[in-house]
Amino acid sequence: MSSSVPKVLILGHSFVKRLHCDLKAGFDARADSCFNLEGTATATLFGVGGRTVHKLRLHDLHVVRRLAPDVVILEIGTNDLSVLGPEVVGSSIEELVSSLLNDFAVSVIGVCHVIPRGDSFTHWAEFLQRAKILNNYVRVVLDPFPNVFCWSHKDFSSPHKDLYLADGVHVNPLGQYFLYRSYRGAILKASGLLRS
Predict the structure, then answer these.
(1) pLDDT in tens, 59-87
(2) Binning pLDDT at 50, 70 and 90, where does residue 169 land?
(3) Is 20 helix (H, G, I), strand (E, B) or coil?
(4) Do residues 73 and 110 make contact, with C-beta atoms less than 8 angstroms apart?
(5) What is the dihedral of CA 113, 3, 18, 177, to 10 degrees?
(6) Which residues neighbour 161 within 8 Å (Cβ) at sequence distance 6 or greater?
(7) Cα(151)–Cα(111) distance, rounded to whole angstroms?
(8) Fewer CB within 10 Å, N side or C side of the chain?
């Protein structure tokens, strides 16, 4: 660990970018931009809309290099599923995790499961099946890595929950709060792994 208070980077696509903006705007009184970590860790969010795993590796790893985080929480894979098979996406996530561990000396990595689309999304059922395959695949291929865990956003277990905007892709303010709370849980799990 590089400091007494671990540094956490939440890295990914538009979900991360939107939450970062909403936290800065004070979208919910219960949501704190420091994730109410009270000295347990410091968290930075960096997300870019439309990011795929490939584009993240090409364009965003400078953030990892600059911050030198102890923990990286990845919110990635969603945009890849529209053009690539789940196994291909899962393999690229495995390669990214390996690079973060070996090339950037990240101590703990959490890989978030892909959130299903809401049922207002045109092909939500097909996307749900692809997401389930990807999530299972990633769980299996990352299992051998020490200090790497998969994280499920449990509040998004069903595409029928009223947590989405009209596009069925992005989340509404309640969904945003649940996502915030889920990231906080992932940070706390990662912090526990750092201490073990």
Answers:
(1) 999 999 999 999 999 999 999 998 999 99
(2) very high
(3) helix
(4) yes
(5) 70
(6) 118, 155
(7) 6
(8) C
Residues 105, 71: Cα–Cα separation, whole Å? 10
* Planar angle of CA 139, 144, 146, nearest 5 degrees: 105
pLDDT reported for residue 5? 92
Q: Are strands 42-47 and 7-12 parallel, antiparallel or unpaired?
A: parallel
CB neighbour class for 54 (10 Å; exposed up to 12, middle 13-18, buried from 19): middle
Helices (H) and strands (E) in the chain, counts: 6, 5
pLDDT for 109-123, tens place per residue? Answer: 999 999 999 999 999
Question: Which are the contacts of 59, defined by CB distance < 8 A and separation ≥ 6?
Answer: 48
